[in-house]
Structure formats: structure tokens, C-alpha cells
């Protein structure tokens, strides 16, 4: 990954590509941030972080704005820190949730953290150099805190009055949903994380989604009160599609970033199915294409907009899964399109595969069960409706018989024209 510039260049990229939502600097011009970076590091380099709790073993598309912000930070010659919440995961961020997060044991948290590491390894270069990314676990300091000294030295800077004013807290209370004392402490620990990263790594900036604004401001104010430190914060916008749905939510669930949670082909298809009105915005946010090329692509009209969607899908998949997987996914999609659903014998090569034992299904597998097994339908009832409505295909051919059986050793199954999977019955 190349790097060349400074904090000012990073801020410029965020502005022109649409990443900036809220900023702690007066008038949102970030002059204080770039000035502090220029004064504090050779070449005006900036150290910034985003925190991620290890509640699952993969991140999803909803996290991509923050991940891409970290990537641009590094590409402009600055240093990103990925903070894994090994400590805070034990509590759970209550922000805009209706219920408490399930409690995870240490082994599960450690396993999840390893999965998150695989995601970041695709987007960032880690090492010990000046602009190399660092991965840090807040359990390193939170696990060592003494409760009474922490309350005396840190807790006294937080008032319950102000904590109750946060939208994430007010919503839980207004709905008469329980908010535990454990969760109530989360915002204090996140604020302390920012202070600790400033002390240990010279970190000046915390970034996050718009729902994290209150927690970020808490850290800025804590550093000022405890040490007179000036820190900064910015958030990325909450993304919704042109039709108003939350970015990354699909009928099949979250769009995960790890290949073992969602195949590169399905990831590619998610971007290929972007609404026309979102193509330009998503190209700016989720690819590294030059803005001039993006401007050309978003001017395409009618059927030509599909060219831009294919570019978006391939570029986003390249960043997440690598060039080889992106090319395979694009080729598989071309094969399905050109062969009426995969009947050429090669179109399924890049598709997500489900392998089942032929010995357990000696007479073949009912198509209804096959659609469920491959994840193309969430239930047998949904699979039957899909067949009745003409949306199910077997090797490119529509199937209208709910009692149909898949007897061949390998088959490409389709749900509609955009979702496909490969079923393999092994000996």
C-alpha cells in the first residue's frame, strides 16, 4: 500500500469522498486536528483509531465506512490503530439497542478477535513502521484497572445527569427497557480507551459511526479534564440506500466480510445489486477509483449503468477478498448471464458451494431441500413459494414442480436472476 502525504491530505480525501458527518473541531474545518498532527509528528503524520468489539467473528458491510476511513488514513501516510474491545466486549455497547448483548466467555471473545483480524488484514498493512497499522486490545489496560482508584480518578469526571441525556440511554429508558449498571459503565470505559491510546501511542483522533458520537465526545472531554490534552473526533454518516433501507441489510441477513461467513461471489452480487441512485456514492466510499472515473461511471444511464455496478462489485470485492476472488466472482456472474444460469459447466466455478453426501440422498435431493441447504431460501415454505412463483431455476431452467428432485452430481441452483449457488452431491 503506497503512502505519501499527511493529516491534511487525509482530511481532504474524507471530504471529497463523502466520509465526514460530525467533527469535534470548530466549524468542522479540522484545522485544529491537522495543526496538532503537524506539530506532533514528522511529516504531519496522524495517529487515529476506530474501536470494534469482538461480538462476532466477522464484521459486516455496515462497518466498511470506518474500515475504509482507516485505509485512507494509511494511504495518506498516517498511522491507523484498530482497537479490539477484548475488555469492553464483556460489557456490551448499549448504544441504540433494545436489549443487553449476550455475555461471551473469554475463549469466544478471543476466537472472534482472531476473525476480525482476518478482515483487517485485507484492508491494512500491519507492522512496526511509522505508517504501519497496529492492532491493540483494550483488555491490556482495562483488565488491570483497580475499581476504587478508577472511580476516584476517572469516574468523578462523569455526571449521571449528562449520561442520562445521551440518546442511546434515553431511548432504552423511555421504552422502559432495562439498562444494567454494567452497560451504563460502557461509555466511561470507551472514553478511557481514548485517553489510554493517546498516552501509549500518541493517538489524536477517534473515528466511528454516527451512533458513537456521544462516546467519542466523552473521550475528548475526559482527556482535557484529566491531562489538559486536546483530542479530536469525527464520525461517518449512517448509510441508507436510496430506497431508505439500512446499508448492508438483506433478506438473507448481514453481508459479512469474511469469506467463510459470506462467499466472495455473494459479496460481489450484493454490490452488483446496488440501486441505480446509489452507484456513484458507493463508488466514492467503497472503492479507490479516481473521482474522475467515478464521475464518468455515475453519468451512465439506462442499461449502461450495469457497467458501473459491475465495476463497483469487482472493486469492492477486490479490496475485501483479493483480486483473484474478485475476478472469479465476476467471471462466474458473466457465465451465469451468458449461459442462462450456468448450463455451460463452468459458470458455477466461482459460486458458493454446498456439498452433501449422495449416500444420504440415494434417490436425489428434493429441490425444496436443496434451496434451503444452499441458503437460497430461508425455509421450506419460502422455497415452495419461490418455485410456485417461477423464481427457482435448476441449471438455468425454470422449475415449477414443488416435488422436483435434484439427481445430478453437480447443479447450479438459482433464486431469481441474481442469487445462485452450486450444489454438489459427493459419493
Automatic annotation (TrEMBL):
User: Does the record carry Mitochondrion as a key word?
Assistant: no
Q: Which UniProt keywords apply?
A: Aminoacyl-tRNA synthetase, ATP-binding, Cytoplasm, Ligase, Nucleotide-binding, Protein biosynthesis, RNA-binding
Q: Which GO terms describe its biological process?
A: tyrosyl-tRNA aminoacylation
Task: Kindly list the positions annotated as binding ATP.
Answer: 249
The record, for SUPFAM superfamilies, names: Alpha-L RNA-binding motif, Nucleotidylyl transferase
| One of the record's GO molecular function terms | tyrosine-tRNA ligase activity
Cellular component aspect of the GO annotation: cytosol
Question: Where do the Tyrosine--tRNA ligase SYY-like C-terminal domain residues begin and end?
Answer: 349-410
Q: Where does the protein end up?
A: Cytoplasm
Q: From the UniProt entry, list the residue stretches annotated as the region Disordered.
A: 335-359
User: In chain numbering, where does the motif 'HIGH' region fall?
Assistant: 54-63
Residue ranges annotated as compositionally biased, kind Gly residues, are: 337-348
Q: Which HAMAP family match?
A: Tyr_tRNA_synth_type1
Its function, per the record, reads: Catalyzes the attachment of tyrosine to tRNA(Tyr) in a two-step reaction: tyrosine is first activated by ATP to form Tyr-AMP and then transferred to the acceptor end of tRNA(Tyr).
Please identify the protein, giving its name as recorded. Answer: Tyrosine--tRNA ligase
- This chain's source organism reads Azospirillum doebereinerae
Amino acid at each position: 500500500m503506497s503512502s505519501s502525504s499527511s493529516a491534511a491530505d487525509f482530511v481532504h480525501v474524507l471530504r471529497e469522498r463523502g466520509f465526514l458527518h460530525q467533527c469535534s473541531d470548530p466549524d468542522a474545518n479540522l484545522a485544529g486536528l491537522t495543526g496538532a498532527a503537524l506539530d506532533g509528528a514528522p511529516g504531519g503524520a496522524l495517529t487515529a483509531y476506530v474501536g470494534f468489539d469482538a461480538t462476532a467473528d466477522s464484521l459486516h458491510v455496515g462497518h466498511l465506512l470506518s474500515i475504509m476511513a482507516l485505509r485512507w488514513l494509511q494511504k495518506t501516510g498516517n498511522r491507523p490503530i484498530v482497537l479490539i474491545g477484548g475488555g469492553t466486549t464483556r460489557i456490551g455497547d448499549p448504544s441504540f439497542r433494545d436489549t443487553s448483548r449476550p455475555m461471551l466467555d473469554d475463549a469466544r471473545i478471543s476466537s472472534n478477535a482472531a476473525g476480525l483480524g482476518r478482515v483487517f488484514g485485507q484492508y491494512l498493512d500491519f507492522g512496526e513502521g511509522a505508517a504501519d497499522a497496529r492492532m491493540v486490545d483494550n483488555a491490556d489496560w482495562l483488565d488491570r484497572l483497580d475499581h476504587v482508584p478508577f472511580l476516584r480518578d476517572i469516574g468523578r469526571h462523569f455526571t449521571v445527569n449528562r449520561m442520562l441525556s445521551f440518546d442511546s440511554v434515553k431511548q432504552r429508558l423511555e421504552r422502559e427497557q432495562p439498562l444494567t449498571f454494567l452497560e451504563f459503565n460502557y461509555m466511561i470505559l470507551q472514553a478511557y480507551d481514548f485517553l489510554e491510546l493517546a498516552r501509549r501511542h500518541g493517538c489524536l483522533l477517534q473515528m466511528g459511526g454516527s451512533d458513537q458520537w456521544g462516546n467519542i465526545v466523552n473521550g475528548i472531554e475526559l482527556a482535557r479534564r484529566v491531562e489538559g490534552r486536546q483530542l479530536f473526533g469525527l464520525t461517518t454518516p449512517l448509510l441508507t440506500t436510496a430506497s431508505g433501507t439500512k446499508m448492508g441489510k438483506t433478506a438473507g441477513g448481514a453481508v459479512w466480510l469474511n469469506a467463510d461467513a459470506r462467499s466472495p461471489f455473494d459479496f460481489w452480487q450484493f454490490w452488483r445489486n446496488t440501486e441505480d441512485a446509489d452507484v456513484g456514492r458507493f463508488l466514492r466510499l467503497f472503492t479507490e477509483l479516481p473521482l474522475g472515473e467515478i464521475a464518468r461511471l455515475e453519468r451512465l444511464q439506462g442499461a449502461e449503468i450495469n457497467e458501473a455496478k459491475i465495476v463497483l462489485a469487482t472493486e469492492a470485492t477486490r479490496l475485501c477478498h483479493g483480486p483473484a476472488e474478485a475476478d472469479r466472482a465476476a467471471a462466474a456472474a458473466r457465465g451465469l448471464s451468458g449461459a442462462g444460469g450456468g448450463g455451460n459447466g463452468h459458470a458455477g466455478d466461482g459460486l458458493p458451494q454446498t456439498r452433501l453426501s449422495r449416500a444420504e440422498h440415494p434417490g436425489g435431493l428434493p429441490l425444496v431441500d436443496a434451496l434451503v441447504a444452499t441458503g437460497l431460501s430461508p425455509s421450506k415454505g419460502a422455497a415452495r413459494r419461490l418455485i410456485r412463483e417461477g423464481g427457482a431455476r435448476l441449471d438455468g431452467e425454470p422449475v415449477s414442480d414443488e416435488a422436483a428432485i435434484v439427481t445430478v452430481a453437480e447443479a447450479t441452483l438459482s433464486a431469481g436472476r441474481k442469487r445462485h449457488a452450486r450444489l454438489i452431491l459427493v459419493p
